[in-house]
UniProtKB/TrEMBL annotation:
Name of protein: ABC transmembrane type-1 domain-containing protein
Topological category with respect to the lipid bilayer: Single-pass type I membrane protein
Organism: Dipteronia dyeriana
This protein's UniProt keywords: Cell membrane, Glycoprotein, Leucine-rich repeat, Membrane, Receptor, Repeat, Signal, Transmembrane, Transmembrane helix
Xref: PROSITE patterns: ABC_TM1F, LRR
ABC transmembrane type-1 domain mapped to chain residues: 692-838
Pfam families per record: ABC_membrane, LRR_1, LRR_8, LRRNT_2
Subcellular localization(s) per the UniProt record: Cell membrane
InterPro entries for this protein: ABC1_TM_dom, ABC1_TM_sf, Leu-rich_rpt, Leu-rich_rpt_typical-subtyp, LRR-RLK, LRR_dom_sf, LRR_N_plant-typ
GO MF annotation, one: ABC-type transporter activity
Length: 848
């Protein structure tokens, strides 16, 4: 039996002459050896080959008469250029040299002799030069030049020769110029696949596409195309994939698109499309992917969309869509996996029909106007891993937390800027012990929640990112926060936290140990989140790895010293301890934080010298110790030469070229006379302003009103009678003027300070909220604006000091004048003086 089979096989084999060793055509063999001369490769063994028959060489196939027809050497590590001798392989029909390291231009004239060529794949090399338009073979079926460095135009005429072309892929090169329109205006359009994406094509998409009745895939994303979608596009009814993302396309998506019944992917994100989502889009029942985000689409979700029952990805974020989201029926979209409706203007409650979509893994409804509560029904979404509801108007955080805790797969939860002024849910309400076990990212920023850092966070052992900024959290930083082993990004800024910094940093394993850090680095996010980066520009992240390891406790009321143990956090990139009440020295150990890019210690009461070892922090690009009580020489050299002098201002004891104080004339002092001026918290500043204004008003009014009154009284009793040229009366008028000036100055100062400060605070809120997930509409300008405003506020606070000095001077002068003219009045002012003192003191306190 076996013999019989073998005989049969032998018989079959003998029927194929190609396998009966027709020796290789000698011209082809020489051409191949010449081809090999131009390249080096460790894996290509043609010349060392025992066989002299090139048809047996690796990657070569010959036809019956020994002519080479296939040259297939993908991923062979070929390095070098393509030899012109390839043109002698005139019977070549398949050429695949993809995934190598070939460079230089193609030998254009040689390619024109390859008249039998059908399949050409040169993708993933570093080939340069122009498109080989002499590639005129009318047998050519497939061209793949993608991921090379080709440039220049693709001549329209090319396609007129290529009547059999079915697949044309030039993606990821640097082709320029107008779109090669003849791609489809030729009467005979047989093409099925066109991929022009990732180039620099510009201008409009010319009409004619509709004539390509076999076209299935059309990609031209990531170019510089403008103008509208051509109308006849909608007659190419075989289209399954239409991808034109990231261009400058404008106009609307016509309802005519519903003719493309085969469409499964309609990818038009990042354009400037306006108008409504086609109202009959439900007729595209095969649609799976609908990414239309980052456009100017308006109107509401068309109800027919609920018929797109195979829809898996629906991304409409950053548009101008509106309407009550709860009226849309999601319950038929059972295949839905990703839903992103963020940054629109949707209203209403969270849609309860959404809870039928059991396969949902990522939901992002950020930045809408949703209200109501998170329903306990949400636990039905068993696969949900990513949920961002930030910047809405949701209420009842306790119910939200209790419901969401039941989602076993939840790993990203962002609820920032909701639940305004509620109480932070703590253990009294949260009793589920095994909830949130997979949570990696938790964001509650900007909710103005009161209470303490909730103790249940201690159980989240997988937590990597924690944002509790911009709340009203009081109490001390609990020591267990430092024991979350994977935590590498923590933002507690803008709260009311007091006490010292816990010392036990070694518990933050992700910032201490390389091993844990690498483990953490593998995490990815289902949908990108925006984070205000350390350079104050809005960045999108889809890997937590790219989020700079951060410890931010700024703008609290922390006191005590900076623990020397902080030096253990050697993977930390951003450390912000600014605007607290920290005292003591800058520990020498800080120089162990060798990955630090940003270090902010400003606005504390630190004293002593700046450790010279900080010069060793080679990645430090932002550093400030402004407004402390530091003294001695500023280190020079290294990164220290790149910091602006504002990084050191407000430390009169510091010396060095940058602050223009010579260290020779400035022996180190033991006590700084500098008054640490820090940006006080909003509330304190508010009190100070009110205090100041009220007392200023009292003083101003009394000194303004009483002085002339007493003068009048004095005049009544005077035997001399009214004398308007009386010098002392002029003086009294002067005092009135000064009094009113005082009131005015107080009011102006108050207005400015309140106004600027609240503006600034709003912006900070915005920034920090975008700090976890928001806004593509925002821009770098916000960051820049914030910095300028912070400077403005600081200088206003400084101005206030100057004003205080000025006030005292004015009042003293007024006293002297008053004493000279009228002792009754002087007495009055003397009574008022302590009151003024109290007012100034309270303002003073508020700056500290
Ligand atoms: C050339 O190397 C390949 C493996 O890279 C091997 O399969 C083939 O037999 C070798 N050919 C000759 C003729 O040595
Ligand atoms: C092989 O090439 C030779 C010379 O170019 C030619 O004469 C012959 O017809 C070719 N054989 C086939 C099967 O094309
Ligand atoms: C192949 O073609 C080149 C020019 O295209 C020519 O110079 C050469 O002699 C031909 N023969 C071989 C074996 O390379
Ligand atoms: C070329 O070879 C690579 C690697 O084997 C393969 O992925 C690719 O599909 C081939 N190209 C064509 C057009 O068949
Ligand atoms: C080149 O593109 C064609 C068509 O798009 C595709 O079939 C082929 O696999 C691609 N080659 C590689 C290496 O991906
Ligand atoms: C584009 O090509 C470069 C190098 O050739 C490659 O690294 C990159 O991944 C490619 N991009 C795409 C989108 O294919
Ligand atoms: C074009 O080629 C690139 C790389 O070879 C591939 O990734 C891409 O999927 C191809 N385009 C189409 C539409 O097949
Ligand atoms: C489409 O094809 C028809 C003939 O089938 C032709 O008359 C028309 O001009 C073509 N359209 C374009 C834009 O080339
Ligand atoms: C993109 O196109 C616009 C005109 O539509 C042109 O001004 C701009 O320079 C182009 N950009 C690139 C990178 O080609
Ligand atoms: C949805 O997808 C399934 C599985 O791919 C397919 O069998 C079904 O026909 C599709 N439904 C529609 C309406 O296209
Ligand atoms: C789209 O909206 C942006 C932001 O409001 C606006 O600047 C732009 O001009 C709009 N574009 C169009 C085409 O309407
Ligand atoms: C959002 O909707 C509200 C109420 O429906 C409206 O007042 C507001 O102007 C809208 N905002 C935008 C940006 O469309």
């Amino acid at each position: 039996m076996v013999h019989l089979v073998l005989h049969l096989i032998l018989l079959l084999l003998s029927c194929f002459p190609s396998l009966t060793h027709q020796a290789c055509n000698s011209l082809d063999q020489e051409s191949l050896l010449s081809f090999q001369l131009y390249i080096s490769s460790s894996s290509l063994n043609w010349s060392s080959s025992s066989s002299s028959d090139c048809c047996l060489w690796e990657g070569i196939t010959c036809d019956a008469s020994g002519n080479v027809t296939h040259l297939m050497l993908p991923s062979k590590g070929l390095t070098g250029t393509i030899s012109p001798s390839i043109g002698n392989l005139t019977h070549l029909s398949h050429l695949n040299l993809s995934h190598n390291r070939l460079f230089g231009p193609l030998p254009i004239t040689s390619f024109s002799s390859l008249i039998q060529l059908q399949i050409l794949d040169l993708s993933y090399n570093s080939l340069t030069g122009e498109f080989p338009s002499t590639l005129l073979s009318n047998h050519i079926k497939l061209v793949n030049l993608s991921s090379n460095l080709f440039n220049g135009l693709i001549p329209s005429s090319y396609f007129q020769q290529a009547g059999n072309l079915m697949s044309f892929n030039v993606s990821n090169n640097s082709f320029t110029g107008p779109f090669p329109s003849s791609a489809w205006t030729y009467y005979f359009c047989s093409v099925r696949l066109l991929d022009f994406s990732y180039n620099d094509f510009s201008g409009q998409i010319p009409p004619g596409l509709g004539n390509c009745s076999k076209l299935q895939t059309f990609r031209s994303g990531f170019n510089n195309l403008s103008g509208p979608l051509p109308d006849d596009l909608y007659t190419a009814t075989s289209l399954e994939e239409l991808s034109l993302a990231v261009n400058y396309l404008s106009g609307s998506i016509s309802n005519g698109i519903v003719q493309l019944k085969s469409l499964t992917t309609l990818e038009l994100y990042s354009n400037q499309l306006t108008g409504l989502i086609p109202k009959d889009i439900g007729k595209l029942s095969k649609l799976r992917h609908l990414p239309l985000h980052i456009n100017n689409l308006s109107g509401s979700l068309p109800p027919s969309m609920q018929n797109c029952i195979n829809l898996s990805t629906l991304n409409l974020r950053v548009n101008f869509l509106q309407g009550d989201i709860a009226t849309f029926n999601f319950s038929m979209l059972l295949q839905l996996r990703t839903l992103d409706l963020g940054n629109n203007n949707f209203t209403g409650n969270l849609p309860s029909t959404l809870y039928s979509c059991k396969f949902l893994t990522a939901v992002r409804l950020t930045s809408n106007q949703l209200e109501g509560q998170v329903s306990p029904e949400i636990v039905a979404l068993e696969s949900l891993s990513f949920l961002s509801l930030s910047t809405n108007r949701l209420t009842n955080i306790s119910i939200a937390i209790r419901s969401l805790m039941g989602l076993k797969n939840l790993s990203t939860l962002i609820l920032s800027k909701n639940f305004m002024d509620e109480a932070m849910p703590d253990d009294d309400h949260i009793t589920i012990s095994d909830g949130f076990q997979n949570l990696r990212l938790l964001g509650f920023g900007g909710c103005q929640l009161s209470g303490k850092v909730p103790a249940w966070i201690a159980k989240l052992k997988k937590l990597q990112v924690l944002d509790l900024s911009l709340n009203k959290i009081s109490g001390s930083i609990p020591g267990w926060l430092w024991t979350l082993p994977r935590l590498s990004y923590m933002d507690l800024s803008y709260n009311f936290m007091s006490g010292g910094l816990p010392k036990e940093f070694s518990g933050l394993q992700a910032l201490v140990s390389e091993e844990v850090r690498n483990e953490v680095a593998r995490s990815y996010l289902e949908l990108p989140i925006s984070v205000m980066s350390v350079n104050a520009s809005d960045r999108q992240y889809n890997r937590l790895l790219y989020l700079a390891p951060t410890l931010n406790v700024s703008n609290n009321r922390l006191s005590g010293v900076i623990p020397v143990e902080i030096g253990q956090l050697k993977f930390l990139h951003v450390l912000d301890l600014s605007h607290n009440n920290l005292s003591g020295n800058i520990p020498e150990e800080m120089s162990l934080l060798t990955n630090l890019e940003r270090l902010d210690l400003s606005g504390n009461h630190l004293f002593g010298e700046i450790p010279w070892s900080l010069k060793g922090l080679n990645f430090l690009s932002w550093f400030t110790i402004a407004h402390n009580n530091l003294q001695g020489p500023i280190p020079s050299g290294g990164q220290f030469d790149t910091f602006p002098n504002s990084s050191f201002e407000g430390n009169p004891g510091l010396c060095g070229a940058i602050v223009q104080r010579s260290c020779l004339n400035h022996p180190p002092t033991t006590t700084g006379l500098a008054l640490p001026i820090t940006e006080s918290s909003n509330k304190e500043l508010g009190y100070g302003v009110i205090d100041g204004a009220v007392f200023g008003l009292i003083i101003g009014i009394t000194s303004g009103a009483l002085y002339p009154l007493s003068k009048l009284k004095f005049l009544q009793h005077s035997s001399v009678g009214a004398d308007f040229s009386d010098f002392s009366f002029l003086l009294s008028l002067g005092a009135v003027f000064i009094g009113f000036l005082l009131v005015l100055m107080m009011l102006v100062w108050c207005f400015l300070a309140c106004h600027r400060r609240s503006m600034c605070f709003e912006k900070v809120v915005y920034m920090e909220i975008s700090s976890l997930d928001e806004a593509e509409h925002s821009s770098d300008a916000i960051g820049a604006w914030l910095t300028t405003d912070a400077v403005a506020v600081r200088s206003l606070v400084g101005d206030a000091l100057a004003l205080l000095v000025q006030n005292i001077a004015t009042i003293v002068a007024g006293l002297v004048i008053a004493f000279k003219s009228n002792w009754e009045l002087t007495l009055l002012i003397l009574v008022l003086f302590p009151l003024m003192g109290i007012s100034e003191y309270s303002r003073w306190k508020s700056f500290k």
